Each structure stands twice: as C-alpha cells, then as structure tokens.
Amino acid sequence: MTTASRVLPFPFPQPPFLPGWVWLVGAGPGDPGLLTLHAAHALSRADVVVHDALVNTDVLCLARPDAEVIHAGKRGGKPSASQPDISNRLIALARANKRVLRLKGGDPFIFGRGGEEARALVAAGVPFRVVPGITAGIGGLAYAGIPATTRETNAAIAFVTGHAASGTVPDNVDWSALAQSASVLVIYMAVKHLETIVGRLMAGGRSPEEPLAFICSATTTRQRVVTSTLGRAVADRDAQGVEAPAIVVVGEVVRLRETLGAWWDPAELLPALSESAAE
Ligand code: SAH
C-alpha cells in the first residue's frame, strides 16, 4: 500500500476572488456534486451571481446569504437577455467593484457563449478568470452509462451543435465530412432540428441502424435516457416526448449502456433529497 506523500490543506489553496473581477464559471450539467472546488469557492465569495437558465439553482446554497442573484436566462416565456446586455451588465457590475460570478451550465467555453463574454471583458479592460466545468456531453454520457470512448469502438469523438446563432442547423459544419471522420458524435441542441441532422449524417454514409441515445436533463433527478437508432430517431423523439435540454449521442458506444446504464439511478437521489429537506 502507498500513502500520499504530502497532505495538502483542505480546501486547497484558492486564488483570491478580488472585487472588480469577473469569474466565468462552469456549474456542470446539473448534479451539484459535479461542481469543481474552484466553483464552490467562487460561490462562497461572490457579491453577485449572474446565472443561466440551465444552471441547477440548488448550487446557490453555496453562495453568501447576502449575495445578489441575477437570472440571465429564459424563464416563464420571457425572452432571454441578449448577449450584449449580459456582457454589459457583467462589465457594469465589475466596474462597481463587485466580485462577479458568471455561472454557466456545463463548461463556459462549450457552446455557452463564454468566449463572447470573455472577449467583451477584455475589450472593456475588466480582469477575469475562467473556471472550466463538466460539459453535458461528458457528464451526461457518464451518467447514462455510455463511455465517451473505448478502445474497441472509437479513437475519435466530435462535439457538435445542432443549432446556430441564426436559429437553423449550422451551415459551417460539413456534415458529410463529420459523418466520415468521427465515429462518436455528441450533439448539443439537436432536438429541434433532428430531422435535418440525422438526414445529413445518413446522406454522409452513416447507417440508419447505428445506435443513438437522447440523454435528457442529464445528471439531474429528471434525467431520462431514450435509446434509438439514426433511422428511427425522429419517430422515437416524437413518440417518447423527448424534450430539451438533451444531448444526442450517435455511435457504437451507445450499446454499452445495456451493460453499464444501471450504475446511476436518479430515483435514488429523491429519498436522499427529501431527507436533507426534512433536516
Ligand atoms: N455550456 C453547456 C452547453 C450550453 S448549450 C455545457 O457545456 O454543457 C445548451 C445545450 O447543452 C442544451 O440544449 C443541451 O443540448 C445541452 N445540455 C446542457 N445541460 C444539459 C443537461 N443537463 N442534460 C442534457 N443536455 C444538456
């Protein structure tokens, strides 16, 4: 048996969260346990938390009781704040000398417009830090019992978005080339334009028999996984009432869910949650 040669103080040394700074922080896909230590530390220090609709607000219990909480996403049918509005708000809060925590679902730099926000901060001369998070396309696959890679199935994996800023399927993706190059595809925001996406992948040579899974509300108590095939995906989406947020994963790895999918059962969390609520 070996032992740790050095015992680190816990919590680990953390960078100071200084007033006037913006931290762009990933909150992970849903399960609060998937927050990083840096994210938990930032929550405990922030004066103001600006979060998206996809962030599990349970994590806000780690925030200071007097922290201001701003919801910057869509809710109750109201339109979401525009990207320039959000960036300007972050800049104004930082200039008011607040410790600003911009909390985003998953990882801030994966299809989350964190890059745009960081550029706006640089342009405004506002200091910032980035705390990566577990993206839904990694955490969701793990909680669905679908390994993102195995030596037998795939030596490549592609992260793709099915929805461009224009509201359509992105036209800067060469879907045939993608179909030929990465054997596992992890597609974000794919539910709405699924028909076009699976059509392009099959036109690019992917078999209609290829396994596909929808992982909905991944890593939350509402997680639901629907398995299908490329050819049946649209019919199954409609018949099973698949709803966003969902990750679509295409490839042989999906079959491994038959053996590995039982490891995480969201229902197990419910008694634990009601116990903690009763405490
Ligand atoms: N930055 C985020 C992605 C934002 S784009 C990340 O790294 O995860 C929003 C899309 O992410 C959703 O439409 C959906 O495709 C996916 N997504 C985010 N959270 C999810 C979740 N808990 N379950 C399934 N899909 C999720």
TrEMBL record:
Alphabetical list of PROSITE patterns matching this protein: SUMT_1, SUMT_2
InterPro entries, A to Z: 4pyrrol_Mease, 4pyrrol_Methylase_sf, 4pyrrole_Mease_sub1, 4pyrrole_Mease_sub2, CobA/CysG_C, Siro_Cobalamin_biosynth, Uropor_MeTrfase_CS
All copies of domain Tetrapyrrole methylase, residue ranges: 22-232
Pathway(s) per entry: Porphyrin-containing compound metabolism; siroheme biosynthesis; precorrin-2 from uroporphyrinogen III: step 1/1; Cofactor biosynthesis; adenosylcobalamin biosynthesis; precorrin-2 from uroporphyrinogen III: step 1/1
GO biological process, one term: methylation
Domain of life from the UniProt record: Bacteria
Enzyme Commission number, as recorded: 2.1.1.107
Keywords: Cobalamin biosynthesis, Methyltransferase, Porphyrin biosynthesis, S-adenosyl-L-methionine, Transferase
GO MF: uroporphyrin-III C-methyltransferase activity
Family assignment from sequence similarity: Belongs to the precorrin methyltransferase family.
Full protein name: uroporphyrinogen-III C-methyltransferase
Originating organism: Roseospira visakhapatnamensis
